Amino acid sequence: AGPCPSGATRVPLSQPLELVGRVGVLPVQGPASMFLPIASPSGRAGQDWVDFGLAEPHTVLFHEPGSSSVWVGGRGKVYFFDFPEGKNASMRTDCENYITLLERKGEGLHICGTNARRPSCWSLVNGTVESLGEKRGYAPFSPDENSLVLFDGDEVYSTIRKQEFNGKIPRFRRIQGEIELYTSDTVMQNPQFIKATIVHQDQAYDDKIYYFFREDNPDKNPEAPLNVSRVAQLCRGDQGGESSLSVSKWNTFLKAMLVCSDVTTNKNFNRLQDVFLLPDPNGQWRDTRVYGVFSNPWNYSAVCVYSLGDIDKVFRTSSLKGYHSSLPNPRPGKCLPDRQPIPTETFQVADSHPEVAQRVEPMGPLKTPLFHSKYHYQKVVVHRMQASHGETFHVLYLTTDRGTIHKVVESGERERSLAFNIMEIQPFHHPAAIQAMSLDAERRKLYVSSQWEVSQVPLDLCEVYGGGCHGCLMARDPYCGWDQGRCVSIYSSQGPVLQSINPAEPHKECPNPKPDRAPLQKVSLARNSRYYLSCPMESRHATYSWRHEENVEQSCEPGHQSPNCILFIENLTARQYGHYHCEAQEGSYLREAQHWELLPDDGAMAEHLLGRARALAASLWLGAL
Ligand SMILES: *[C@@H]1O[C@H](CO)[C@@H](O)[C@H](O)[C@H]1NC(C)=O
Ligand SMILES: *[C@@H]1O[C@H](CO)[C@@H](O)[C@H](O)[C@H]1NC(C)=O
Ligand SMILES: *[C@@H]1O[C@H](CO)[C@@H](O)[C@H](O)[C@H]1NC(C)=O
Ligand SMILES: *[C@@H]1O[C@H](CO)[C@@H](O)[C@H](O)[C@H]1NC(C)=O
Ligand SMILES: CC(=O)N[C@H]1CO[C@H](CO)[C@@H](O)[C@@H]1O
């Protein structure tokens, strides 16, 4: 983005902004019959959405767990939506003010934006917007900059540069609270910041800031990856150093490499895309799970899970890469009590050797990814939930580059985690890339925004699973169970619902030993006509086949290109009349998904159907080409 056009108007900082409210309409999509659903427009069942009414090329989302509202910062506007009431308050400013930050601040909301390259903030309290003036470091000069702002009480940390044209080297700063500090320019090479967090440790003086980033690989060997993924640590109580060189710099910076590779298959995932921290339910900071989404040069993805305890241990115990003398005392990276400054010698060693030799590896005995996949995942949030029999599951929601969300269930076992992709959710009315995603674990909702709309998606979408009890349990969705003849959310039911504890053959728990048969559908067709039968592949784990009498005429394996398993009949012969069954098979589980009977007919009705069938077939062929 270049400088502002001469006609651009900034929001006058002296003038409060106008707020406008409106009541929106929230259509709710009806349920559709599915079992183990794959991408489908009906994956939207039960969700709410609101259209912006215009394109918002850059959005940020703010949602407070437990509330039914969501704030979206757009271009010159802050949208406020309440689900299910649905209203919006938009803040009218000029087209160049991209809102990049929305954060709770006491009673109100802190809003910061680019404001035509004069980064500024506003506070919104009790429906009134007031200008806080120009605030460098809180918002970037243009919205696509690599910016991260972290609030903790009165402290504010930021990676946003303060000068528009100089100071191009990205730094991690403390911009409010204690003395202002920044990272040395030599400790990171072209960093892309991903996520920052504050971790309160056992002793207050030991509190840490961890941030995750990618940077250029210092190893220029042509075999080596271009980028490496990192976690860095800083002591929250860092007061800077004693020498003129160290006085305004973080004196406790160290960084470590984050490894996400599968040694058995020799697959490496080097590009960190997103991080989600899942705190331990018992409040043990060391057991916080750090979920990292990584990709490789072919845009395949892997999810690796680390623990904060392991990260902390690497920084506390590892030697420094390339440093072969004995370490000074206190050792680099150590937080000192009582606001003691770090001795210059310790700073110099850490500043010249900021990387620890030991790498941070995923949890688990094999230190491998939780799973890898051919999808290009971008963002992740994780929900810890308890199924009705008390077993804990971690459910991952991953955004794909096609604007959908994959729901992946990790079973709670410590030793050998298993991950199962159970659903693809299309959250929007107009398919579009997902710009922001926020999880409300308490209310069990996901909020996502695209350039067109913001959408509220319930985590317990159970009505989408068709196929009766078998379909409901085969879905292996820990939020859903079978109750009184329906696949229901475990939260909506008063009493216990039937859920499976047998992940291999969950349907065996159902009262009816055999799944329901599909209803018979009939069609009359003339001889020599062209026709096709289509069977939606609702499960991503099943093989679908079309059977005519005893012969399998068409078979579609999991991972089939099209979402339907299609049987073409080029030129209908006498032998081809009769019954056709589409069957979905997964392990020992077999379900009839469709049942058709093709009947001979030479009358006018057949002509009509034939014409329709031909038209459909033609459009389908075009689609396939
Ligand atoms: C917000 O507005 C309400 C009603 O106008 C008023 O009662 C309340 O005191 C206000 N709160 C603050 C913090 O100004
Ligand atoms: C990673 O590598 C690419 C390709 O060389 C480069 O453009 C990019 O700036 C590098 N750094 C990061 C942090 O992604
Ligand atoms: C990977 O994804 C990025 C961004 O989505 C895209 O620019 C790039 O071309 C993709 N690379 C490959 C090999 O598909
Ligand atoms: C179907 O087969 C019949 C007899 O073999 C032939 O006359 C007819 O042209 C064929 N129709 C098509 C559409 O290929
Ligand atoms: C997204 C949206 O619906 N925006 C509306 C918010 O309210 C103002 C004022 O009524 C409308 O002009 C916007 O279109």
From TrEMBL:
Residue ranges occupied by any Sema domain in the UniProt entry: 1-459
Q: So which domain of life are we looking at? A: Eukaryota
User: According to its record, how does it sit in the membrane?
Assistant: Lipid-anchor; GPI-anchor
The UniProt keyword set, sorted, is: Cell membrane, Developmental protein, Differentiation, Disulfide bond, Glycoprotein, GPI-anchor, Immunoglobulin domain, Inflammatory response, Lipoprotein, Membrane, Methylation, Neurogenesis, Signal
Domain Ig-like positions: 513-588
Any one GO CC term of this protein is: external side of plasma membrane
A single Gene Ontology MF term assigned here is: semaphorin receptor binding
Protein name from the UniProt record: Semaphorin-7A
